[in-house]
Amino acid sequence: MTPRQPSARTWTRLGLGALGGLLAGGAALAVAELAAAAVRPQSGPVVAVGAAAIDRTPTAVKDWAIRTFGADDKLVLQLGILAVLTLFALALGAFAARHRRTGAAGVLVFGVVGAAAALGRPDSTGVTDALPSILGAMAGAALLYVLVGLLPPARREAPGEREERGEQTDQGERGGGWDRRRFVAAATTAAAASAGAGVLGRSLSGAGGREAVASRKNVTLPPPGSRAPAVPRRAQVGVDGVSSFFTPNSDFYRVDTALVVPKVDAATWRLRVHGDGVDRERTLTFDDLLRRELIERDITLTCVSNEVGGPYVGNARWIGVRLAGLLEECGVRRPSQGGPADQLVARSVDGMTIGSPVEDVMDGRDAMLALGMNGEPLPFDHGFPVRMLVPGLYGYVSACKWIEEIELTRFDAYDAYWVKRDWAREAPVKTQSRIDTPKPFDRPKGGTVMVAGVAWAQHRGIDKVEIRVDDGPWREATLAAEDSRDTWRQWSYAWPATKGGHTLTVRATDRTGEAQTERRTRTVPDGASGWHSVVVTVE
Questions:
Q1: Residue 102 · residue 96 · CB < 8 Å
Q2: CA–CA separation, 176 vs 156, rounded Å?
Q3: Cβ of 495: how many Cβ atoms within 10 Å?
Q4: Cross-strand partners of 478
Q5: Which one of 73, 289, 326, 518 is least enclosed by Cβ atoms within 10 Å?
Q6: What is the C-alpha to C-alpha distance for residues 276 and 172, in angstroms, rounded to an integer?
Q7: Highest mean pLDDT pick, 167-181, 188-202, 269-283
Q8: Which is higher by pLDDT, 148 or 2?
Q9: Half-sphere exposure of 427 (CA within 13 A, CB side)
Q10: Alpha-carbon gap, residue 239 to 247, rounded angstroms
Q11: What are the tens digits of pLDDT across the range 15-65?
């Protein structure tokens, strides 16, 4: 017996049901966005679910996302979430075309997932964080129920047939027909209202950060009491294609887990210092920090997710407060001096935790609470109003952005965010070097070709850089003048290039005499290692 094929009216109903599901999903997101503007932007379902996804994503996948998408990894994640929600909405709408009540109730699953994700965030402010997802889901469920009620019946029914079954005729159906105009009007109205709610929500969320933007504009950084030495004239090799000595703020790498960049008002910002070995707990304001003596230092930062030859390294001139001095005022002592705490846990306003060795923070290096970057207050992307820096350590164990709390504890008592995800507890920056020019697969002309790039070994300094062509001997490159041992160092090598394909390889040696290892490792658990090389063809 041949199975009965769905009629054209059934396909029409399913298709329009899927459209209704899509409109209901859009309405749910728009209402949630509007509600999140009243609660806080981070409580919105897309942001909350995205943040939860980041927290639960395996380390290897996170590392792949950073390598593949770079600074766009968060955008790709959000687009992926929206794509999944779109498919879910289409499927739910088609299901609701057959099972109206159950399908509409299914939208509430969206609200439960979003609410659970928002409440589970470490920066959650309470039950109100669940409201955007719940309100959005209720709006979406109601709209889907209404739209499905306006769909054409799966088959044409005779007048009075539903009344005979004891059912009421939907107002959109007349004598077995279908009032197409009523459905189109309802769908159009829903789409327009959703768009308006979404735009209004975005606008209100942006308005919520205006105080923070205004507070940043009003910041005037005092002259530092301890200025950075002038950068040596020969700190740059003058070769086209080499990274500029100072990385512009707009080009400085950004690797973090924040789907929404926190907009913190400097006027209301507070920093609490407490924990083991803290004799005098302190709560400081932004103005308190401005009144302290400021230091100005050139420091190169490196992300632990930086692959060999990768872009996640940058150099800037920072202004801030000595962190060791502040800790000493609170009575904190280094472990080597009998202090009970060996870990400093920095907490961000978005719930991120970063653990740093107390010994390194207080050993005399220029660890600081940074307020300024390259002559201006910190950009929001890089931690305004205050972030932490510790030269010589990878960012995930030192460079807490949007910091609001410092707790002194022990490594055996608490694992910070990244340590819970298979990264090492302690991670000094590894000696690394990179060829900036020529680029991979370049085709330079024969003759003298300038090979140049940067090398770094923060808090140790670079002593030597060498270049090797193919399997030939190592040749020492010319080093640019050193600014400080906490900054990268440029280098160049005049290569007498001959025609054909060649592999150029670079390695560096730091001031301790340790040469960059050839052994190639990935970024997990404590940073990549290996020699960087590029392949070129000389014409």
A1: yes
A2: 5
A3: 21
A4: 492
A5: 518
A6: 69
A7: 269-283
A8: 148
A9: 26
A10: 16
A11: 999 999 999 999 999 999 999 999 988 899 999 998 888 888 888 887 888
Q: For residues 15-54, b (16+ Cβ closer than 10 Å) or e, as one string? A: ebbbbbbbbbbbbbbbbbbbbbbebbbbbbbbbbbbbbeb
Encoded tokens for 387: 């972030």
Residue 308 CA to residue 333 CA, distance in Å, equals 37
Buried b (16+ CB within 10 A) or exposed e, 221-258: beebeeebeebeeebbbebeebbebbbebeebbbbbbb
Chain centroid to Cα 55, Å, comes to: 12
Of the candidates 206, 51, 73, the residue with the CA atom closest to the CA atom of residue 118 = 51
- Once rounded to an integer, what is the mean pLDDT over residues 136-162? 80
Q: Which of 380, 122, 394, 385 is nearest to 271 (CA)?
A: 385
What's the Rg (C-alpha) of the chain?
30
Give CA–CA dist 20/398, Å, rounded.
49
- Residues 43 and 36: beta-carbon distance below 8 Å: yes
Q: Can you give the pTM of this predicted structure?
A: 0.87
Integer Cα distance of 148 and 525 in angstroms: 52
pLDDT value of residue 59: 81
Q: Distance of CA 198 to CAs 17, 193, 194, 333, Å? A: 23, 8, 6, 52
Which strands form 462-469's sheet, in the order they lie side by side?
A: 474-476, 462-469, 500-510, 532-538
Query: 184 exposed, middle or buried (CB, 10 Å; 0-12, 13-18, 19+)?
Result: exposed
Measured distance CA(89)–CA(110) in Å, rounded: 10
- Strands (DSSP E) contained in 68-118 are none
Q: Which pLDDT band holds residue 175 (cuts at 50, 70, 90)?
A: very low
Q: Is 401 exposed, middle or buried (0-12, 13-18, 19+ CB in 10 A)?
A: buried
Q: How far apart are CA 222 and CA 230, in angstroms?
A: 18
Q: Where are the alpha helices (DSSP H) in 168-268?
A: 180-208, 210-217
Sign of the CA dihedral running 392, 397, 400, 406: negative
Question: Is 424 strand, coil or helix?
Answer: coil
Structure tokens at 395: 């960012």
- Whether residue 224 has a cis bond before it, omega within 30° of 0: no
Q: How far apart are CA 427 and CA 393, in angstroms?
A: 6
* End-to-end CA gap in the chain: 73
| 313-343: pLDDT as tens digits | 999 999 999 999 999 999 999 999 999 999 9
- For residue 284, the surrounding DSSP H or E stretch is strand 282-285
User: Hey, is 221 helix, strand or coil?
Assistant: coil
Using the predicted structure, report yes or no on whether residue 535 has a pLDDT greater than 90.
Answer: yes
Degrees (nearest 5) of the Cα angle 393, 74, 21?
155
